Amino acid sequence: MSATETAALSKVTGRPRGIRYFPVSLFASIMGFSGTTIAAMQIEPLLSFPPYLSRTLLALTTIFLVGQVFLLLYRLGVYPDEVRRDFDHPVRMNFFGAVSISFMLLAVAYGGPWPQVAEILWWIGAPLHMLITLAVIRKVIVQTHFEINHYNPAWFIPVVGNLVAPIAGVNCAPIEVNWFYFGTGMVMSVVYTTIFFYRIFFHRPLPVKLLPTFFILMAPPAVGFVSYFKLTGQLDPFGRTLYGFAFFIGLTLIVLLPLFYRLPFFLSWWAYLFPSAAITIATVAMYHGTGWAVYQYLAYSQMAVLLVLLVDFTLRTLRTVLRRELCVKED
Fold first, then answer.
1. Around 89, how many Cα atoms within 13 Å sit in the side-chain half-sphere?
2. Quick one: 70 exposed, middle or buried, by C-beta within 10 A (0-12, 13-18, 19+)?
3. Residue 14 — very low, low, confident or very high, per pLDDT cuts 50/70/90?
4. What is the 3-state secondary structure (H, E, C) of the chain?
5. CA neighbor of 103 nearest in space, from 165, 150, 153
6. Which residues are listed as membrane-spanning (predicted)?
7. How far lies 40's CA from each of 50, 255, 256, 291, in Å?
8. How does pLDDT run across 147-179, given as a tens digit for each residue?
9. Domain-by-domain residue ranges, the chain?
10. pLDDT 10s digits, 246-288
């Protein structure tokens, strides 16, 4: 264990722990598993592979989602004050959006093999996500204690998560409903991106624990591109612009890799995975739209990185569970 990890561990020693403190931020892992599952479903046909990997990931993702939803409902019933405390927190409140996004992502994954299941999941996730979006927007408007330094990319999750809805929604809901979700997510992503760059350029750096959330910046244009491609069925200049911006953010993150190197493990590491999966899925879509082989081989390399990250983060999270460091009261 590194000195930094030891210091991080010492901070949780002696704190209250138990199911009442189960972290809602862990739903980011479901987003990561779901995104990797969908990416595998897109890559397997290109390689003429049978769907063994994607089906295994889909089963695991479903099990993890059911387990985490059960724990969240248990907390809501037994420890409602703790859930309310999470929703009042300037960072943790945003991860409630990851709950509904997880349902919508699973709807995408189930859309191929079991469309009836996909439709049920979408009609759970999409309306729930809009309710969470409105609740978060209301809280941000009426609150009196949030400051610019509280702002970080996790704030994107509730509002920009609406971009996920049309990906499976094109097969589940009227087209106008899907454009409503797309418009909400797309316009709010411009607003939130502007605020974030203002915050990061002219105010204090992000806390170390939140540095991995930088990767969330890649999700809005990448998911927006996939959603737009699904809605229009074609690759046009706007779609290319979205993909290009997502790719630019990815290059920026590569330049910033020294910031992320050797960070101690936090649950926020899962923020690396879903945006990386989103750009992988977008790259496959670019290959189908252009037929350019460069995108195909780029998607292969992105998929390989995804699988390495998924295994690594899963093992690190399991280690956290075994050390009884997962359900610990946070500040």
1. 19
2. exposed
3. low
4. CCHHHHHHHHHHCCCCECHHHCCHHHHHHHHHHHHHHHHHHHHHHHHCCCCHHHHHHHHHHHHHHHHHHHHHHHHHHHCHHHHHHHHCCCCHHHHHHHHHHHHHHHHHHHCCCCHHHHHHHHHHHHHHHHHHHHHHHHHHHHCCCCCHHHCCHHHHHHHHHHHHHHHHHCCCCCHHHHHHHHHHHHHHHHHHHHHHHHHHHHCCCCCHHHHHHHHHHHHHHHHHHHHHHHHHCCCCHHHHHHHHHHHHHHHHHHHCHHHHCCCCCCHHHHHHHHHHHHHHHHHHHHHHHHCCHHHHHHHHHHHHHHHHHHHHHHHHHHHHHHCCCCCECCC
5. 165
6. 21-40, 52-74, 95-114, 120-141, 153-173, 179-198, 210-229, 241-260, 267-288, 294-315
7. 11, 27, 27, 19
8. 888 888 889 999 889 999 999 999 999 999 999
9. 16-322
10. 999 999 988 988 877 778 878 888 888 999 999 999 999 999 9
At residue 13, the pLDDT reads 52
List Cα–Cα distances, 39 to 53, 125, 311, in angstroms.
11, 20, 15
pLDDT of residue 234 exceeding 50, the answer is yes
pLDDT, the chain, mean: 90
The CATH label, of 1.50.10.150, 1.10.10.60, 3.30.1330.10, 1.10.3660.10, for the domain at 16-322 is 1.50.10.150
The rounded Cα 261 to chain-centroid distance in angstroms is 21
